[in-house]
Design brief:
Elements: H1 2-5, E1 9-13, E2 19-24, H2 25-33, E3 53-54, H3 59-69, E4 73-77, E5 83-88, H4 89-92, H5 106-117, H6 125-138, E6 142-146, H7 149-159, E7 167-171, H8 180-184, E8 188-192, H9 203-216, E9 222-226, H10 235-244, E10 249-252, E11 260-261, E12 264-265, E13 272-276, E14 289-293, H11 296-306, H12 329-339, H13 342-359, E15 366-368, E16 375-376, E17 382-386, H14 388-391, H15 395-404, E18 410-411, E19 427-428, H16 435-442, E20 443-446, H17 454-469
Parallel strand pairs: 3-4, 7-8, 7-9, 8-19, 9-10, 10-13
Antiparallel strand pairs: 1-2, 4-5, 6-14, 11-12, 11-16, 13-14, 15-17, 17-20, 18-20
Helix pairs in contact: 5-12, 6-12, 13-17
């Protein structure tokens, strides 16, 4: 049994399933050295008080006990001394990261082919195939693979001739990469609040921003709408507002490849849309991005600008400034392998979220990021808010306590209008108060990797339940 279990021990219980002691291969060896035969009963084992912990103990409790007694495994017992679980050092002492790359194996086939054919530098057959694969998933006609999601957004603004003196509306509740390219073009960002239904851009706040701008005699050059944490924004009212004013939408779909809005794929709602393949995304190329559009002319110009705007001449001829933004053939090979399992990765992340909601059900003050009926979210990150009054503990206290248990959790994005670098920018709220600010004050991102084990998810759930149960 010891060999078959792979645990290095068995847990001995009585006829009522109450725990008596652990039995290790060392215990068996000592019996043999004392003259026992392999066919004898282990009933002659001496009584010992095995080290155990109550079933509600945390991994930190277990590690402290393991260190104190120089052991690596501790049984968990319920109030009737029945075995409720087993905590193992090699499992609970390993840090749990927020979102790690998940390689399948097929990636190396494409990378090795790039080496075999010497397609190492930017461009090549992997790039072409990766562009087509992403375009197909997004339901658009054209795509250009670039060095990052930020580069894709920058190119989008450049393609729309955003420049000095222009203003661009942008989701405030997002990562800085959504807003920084506006400043790259020497334009001015104007930030739009989130709405509570999806945590994405508020159509109500957007309408108010357009009304104010029109009354003041100006309109934005573009609107950047972010699909946050793997969930699309509510595009029907957003597009209706923007189309009514003749202002193009740039869809920041960096976090939402594989999501849908009313059955249509994320990435097809903007005149130009951007994806990210950073190491923590649903699928990764280590570092990379993609600009997609149904406008062939725009994507062709994006490819031109992303290769230093080199003119088609035998010598190096440049009539305008370009960028070194193209993706390498090697990284595109990684992306091709990852695209083969995109659907599986989305389902795995959604399963992590479902496990959290089930495992933490019934706890006061725990409120999960909503998924409206029109949305199919990838749950890139499992996010929630904590009502400190109801829960008796703040989001920040939970994050710090998880860190002490070697579990990486983070606050949700700090809104752009609150960032020092954007001090003084204009901001339009959803209603009478800022939804983005409330989300930031109370929000938590939990570990959400598609390669997380059931034991890791259970460890996180047990830790959080312990935190909220102690208050």
């Amino acid at each position: 049994m010891i060999n078959d279990s792979g645990l290095g021990m068995i847990l001995l219980v009585d006829c009522d399933q109450r725990f008596e002691r652990t039995v290790t291969d060392g215990d068996i060896r000592r019996l043999l050295l004392d003259g026992a035969e392999m066919g004898d009963s282990i009933g002659s084992l001496p009584h010992i008080d095995s080290i155990t912990l109550p079933s509600g103990s945390t991994p930190r409790d277990a590690i402290d006990a393991m260190d104190k007694h120089d052991i690596d495994d501790i049984p968990l017992l319920d109030s009737d001394r029945r075995v409720a679980g087993l905590l193992r050092r090699r499992e609970i002492s390993k840090p749990i990261a927020l979102s790690t790359p998940h390689m399948e194996g097929a990636e190396m086939d494409y990378v090795e082919e790039a080496f075999r054919t010497n397609w190492i530098a930017p461009l090549g057959p992997n790039v072409d195939a990766f562009e087509q694969a992403v375009a197909d998933v997004a339901g658009v006609a054209h795509a250009a693979a670039v060095s990052s999601g930020t580069a894709a957004l920058h190119l989008a603004l450049r393609l729309l001739d955003v420049g000095p003196g222009d203003r661009v509306f942008c989701s405030s509740f997002t990562f800085a990469a959504s807003a920084n390219p506006i400043v790259y073009q020497y334009a001015e960002p104007v930030f739009i609040d989130a709405e509570p239904q999806s945590w994405n851009m508020s159509p109500q706040a957007l309408e108010r921003a357009f009304e104010t701008a029109k009354a003041e005699g100006w309109l934005p050059k573009a609107v950047i709408v972010v699909n946050l944490y793997g969930q699309s924004a509510d595009y029907d009212p957003i597009l209706a507002i923007c189309n009514a004013h003749g202002v193009p939408v740039i869809e920041d779909a960096a976090e939402s490849l594989g999501a849908t809005y009313k059955g249509q794929a994320s990435g097809r709602f903007g005149l130009l849309s951007a994806f990210s393949f950073n190491g923590n995304k649903i699928i990764t190329t280590s570092g990379g991005g993609m600009l997609v559009s149904n406008d062939e002319r725009l994507i062709a110009r994006a490819r031109y600008l992303s290769t230093q705007a080199r003119q088609p001449a035998a010598h190096y001829e440049h009539t305008e400034i370009g960028y070194n933004y193209r993706m390498s053939n090697i990284l595109a090979g990684v992306g091709l392998g990852q695209m083969m399992v995109l659907g599986e990765r989305v389902e795995q992340r959604r399963a992590v979220f479902a496990a959290y909601t089930e495992g933490l059900a019934g706890l006061d003050g725990v409120h999960w990021m909503p998924e409206p009926e029109w949305s199919y979210s990838t749950r890139w990150l499992s996010t929630l808010t904590i009502d400190g009054t109801e829960a008796g503990i703040s989001a920040n206290e939970i994050i710090q306590s998880l860190a002490s248990e070697l579990i990486e959790a983070r606050p949700v994005w700090k809104p752009m209008h609150r960032q020092p670098v954007f001090a003084g920018t204009r901001y339009f709220e959803h209603g009478n108060s800022s939804v983005s600010d409330a989300l930031f004050a109370n929000g938590i991102c939990l570990p959400s990797g598609s390669n997380m084990s059931t034991a890791q998810v259970d460890r996180i759930i047990a830790t959080i339940r312990g935190l909220l149960g102690k208050r």
